[in-house]
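Example 425.
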Amino acid sequence: MPIHLAHPLSIVDKAQTLWPASRLHELQFLGQQAAQLDMGLYLVGGVLRDLFLGRVGLDWDLALEGDLQEFLEPLQNQYGYGAEKPSPFLTLRLLGPENHWDLARCRGECYPQPAALPRVYPADLTTDLRRRDFRINAMAMDLHPDRFGTLLDPYDGRRDLADQILEVLHHRSFQDDPTRILRGLRFSLRFDMDLGPLAKTCMDQVLADGIFAMLSGTRLFRELQYLLQLPQPRQSLERFCAWGLGLLLPALHAPDPRLWQALERLSILQHRWQKDFPQDPLSSWLAVLMLLCFFSTPEERERHWQHWQWSPPAAWRRDLFALPAAPPGSAARAARYWRPWTPEGILVALALGDERLSNSARHYWKIQRRMRLPVDGKILQDWGIPPGPALGKALEMLQDAQWNGEIHDQHEAYHWLTTKGLLHR
Ligand code: ATP
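Predicted structure in complex with adenosine-5'-triphosphate:
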């Protein structure tokens, strides 16, 4: 079915105000290349949605009506483009001299069974737009030189954007691919949108049918990670539960009210952390997941991990099992206690609400962790301590002394060792 344009709308002016000029130039160039081969080329998906929301998207998706290899040949041979090998889903990364693009053959999909990966077949743009997740993501911009910049919006995605609703393109959408529900949840949080009536009915239906039991655990886990990365974990997970998805994550089937408070504190702590330690990257999804696992039973979390085919990093698991944290009294002993902890573990320990931990954890991360002993084994040998266990012991004691604030430089270290009887003048 060709796309009927009652009133062609050019979005070039709008695009010019937001998109980098190099993107627009390259889109024109690529559109000309496709037209010379008698192929249709379109910019599609989230970047157009974002344009109407006044944002610049990060992913630039192109859809080609034509053979990928034929289109790539002149680009690679004459214009210095690189391209990755196409995936089984007829998609590839196109590496231009200035920009990278996600290029896909326009395709249709059929699903051998609910929640399975689709079989894809070459098709036209209309079919390609219809297989997409939501109407707001099913818009395209024509790149043909005669129509460059014309918006193709056969499902009225722009109206949905204005009405702030997320509507599916057909009633089997979530049954085909339930990850779309989790994508929808992310969009609803990011853009403050509600599900449209068809999407809501379809979601309730597939959840009642237990669709997520048919989805592979690894695909589910990938989507959950995106969700756990969102900036306001409490709001995200409250909506997750309100949509009836609580069974998909530990602790959310019947959440403990203390979990919500802890999530609230965790997001504040994460902001502080990123400001205080910009050089120490933090994995926010691992922190949120640790908190959820803390509020679940060991059997429940193991069941989820197995289903996701995920084995937690050893340090993360160690921190989880050590919660709630209990650092011992002196500054040196607390530093030794915190030393193996991951940043995520420390934040979760603090998010559990024990104010007493806060000073020792912050002191460790801000000061003690950055300390370097002013002496090493070689210097201690020069001072007369023989190699062997005595040397190791002396270094360990010096480390404690430094953490306790008793030594700051070599001179003080020497003096400290003599007062402890480990060195003789
Ligand atoms: P984001 O800003 O989060 O990257 P996006 O819409 O660009 O949003 P992508 O994951 O890059 O998200 O997907 C690009 C486009 O591919 C989407 O806009 C949508 O049209 C389509 N798409 C992605 N995943 C699905 C899916 N599971 N089912 C149907 N269409 C999808």
